[in-house]
């Protein structure tokens, strides 16, 4: 079986479709089905269709059996013999899940990241410090990409949108990719919302970096639901000694403040399933690292520990040995020493 046109662009004016070509060496009756990684069947292209020996084609427009657009992602192909029910072909049973090295990786000055994939793949693109200054932002969060050249664009800022990274010479771009089966259909451009999946539902089929011959999960975090299979999202907030909100971006820091991280609701759910740790960087230097409770993690920021002027705070929530890392950055400005509160340490 061969997928001649593996990408379905749902917002394409030409109504692009995937073309699936297959050869029957003997007469048979079969079903041709596409299913997602949950694994749930989304489309039966034909059922109990009789074939004489020969070469055939089937097309798919990226819609389910109710003619609704499916979600973005990758879809496997399965052929079932009738009436026996035997699996004649299943693309998820082929060899996949290999680590792929992104070729021709280049980050331009106009906030474009270019790379080439030798195979269809699930891709993660992230930005971090070239040395030990932490992780800045996830640009592509384990999304399916077809083989070939790709350009990822971004606004030049960190995950919080507060710190510009374009002019930082020490910003490192990392592309991690795991191969998908060649007989995979990739859907893009869908506006269909991601639907949550209950914990007791079937495990997701995702490529594994540990064993390329078996279908395994990258992590528990990846199989709970698509809505949870993403980078942890959270915000940084500051309060003064009286508990009042303190705007780090627009105020001079002259007294100690408490820094808290506030994860969004889906991140809170995801963080229940596996250990994780929090790392804090100030001016690209690690000042704290350890396993923490994300709900109530807080620390004091003392102005007397820093020189007057602008500084950058970066907090990372780290999961799955780096497979999922959330980042939030903010600037803060320390007041001149003469106006700092004497209560600072």
Summarize the structure.
The protein has helices at residues 220-223, 265-270; strands spanning 2-5, 7-9, 18-24, 28-35, 41-51, 54-60, 73-81, 87-90, 99-100, 103-107, 112-117, 121-129, 135-145, 148-153, 171-179, 184-188, 234-239, 245-246, 252-253, 257-263, 277-282, 285-290, 298-301, 309-319, 324-334. The chain is mainly β.
- Strand proportion, as a percent range, falls in over 45%
Topology, number of strands? 25
Q: Mind describing the biggest β-sheet?
A: 6 strands, mixed
Rg calculated over all Cα atoms: 24 Å
Globular, elongated, flat, extended or rod-shaped: what is the shape?
elongated
Please report the number of helical segments.
2
Topology as a string of helices (H) and strands (E): EEEEEEEEEEEEEEEEHEEEEHEEEEE
Would you give an account of this structure?
This protein has 345 residues and is mainly beta. It has 3 domains: 2-93, Sandwich (Immunoglobulin-like); 99-223, no CATH class; 234-339, Immunoglobulins (Immunoglobulin-like). It has 2 helices and 25 strands. The strands form 6 sheets. Strands 2, 4, 5, 7, 8 and 16 form a 6-stranded mixed sheet that branches. A 5-stranded mixed sheet has the order 19-25-24-21-22, with no helix packed on it. A hairpin with a 5-residue loop joins strand 7 (73-81) and strand 8 (87-90). The N and C termini lie far apart (69 Å). Mean pLDDT is 79; it is low at 193-229 and 338-345.
């Amino acid at each position: 079986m061969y997928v001649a046109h593996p990408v379905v662009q749902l917002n394409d004016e030409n109504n692009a479709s995937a073309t699936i070509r297959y050869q029957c060496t003997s007469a048979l009756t079969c079903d041709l089905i596409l299913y997602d990684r949950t694994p749930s069947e989304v489309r039966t292209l034909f059922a109990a269709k009789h074939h004489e020996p020969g070469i055939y084609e089937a097309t798919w427009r990226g819609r389910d059996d109710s003619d609704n657009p499916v979600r973005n992602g990758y879809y496997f192909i399965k052929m079932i013999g009738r009436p026996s029910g035997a699996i004649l072909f299943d693309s998820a049973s082929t060899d996949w899940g290999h680590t792929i090295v992104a070729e021709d990786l280049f980050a331009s000055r106009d906030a474009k990241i270019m790379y080439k994939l030798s195979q269809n793949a699930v891709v993660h693109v992230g930005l971090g410090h070239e040395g030990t200054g932490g992780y800045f932002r996830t640009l592509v969060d384990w999304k399916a990409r077809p083989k070939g050249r790709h350009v990822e664009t971004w606004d030049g800022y960190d995950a919080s949108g507060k710190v510009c990274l374009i002019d930082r010479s020490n910003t490192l771009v990392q592309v991690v990719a795991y191969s998908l089966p060649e007989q995979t259909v990739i859907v893009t451009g869908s506006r269909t919302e991601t639907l949550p999946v209950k914990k007791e539902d079937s495990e997701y089929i995702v490529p594994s970096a540990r064993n390329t011959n078996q279908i395994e999960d990258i992590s528990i975090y990846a199989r709970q639901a698509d809505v949870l299979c993403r980078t942890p999202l959270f915000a940084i907030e500051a309060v003064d000694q009286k508990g009042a909100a303190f705007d780090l971006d627009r105020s001079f820091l002259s007294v100690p403040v408490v820094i808290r991280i506030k994860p969004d609701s889906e991140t809170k759910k995801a963080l229940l399933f596996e250990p994780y740790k929090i790392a804090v960087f100030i001016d690209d230097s690690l000042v704290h690292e350890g396993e923490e409770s994300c709900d109530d993690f807080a620390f004091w920021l003392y102005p007397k520990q820093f020189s007057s002027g602008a500084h950058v705070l970066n907090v990372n929530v780290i999961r799955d040995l780096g497979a999922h890392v959330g980042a939030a950055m903010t600037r803060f400005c320390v007041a001149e020493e003469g106006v700092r509160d004497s209560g600072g340490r």
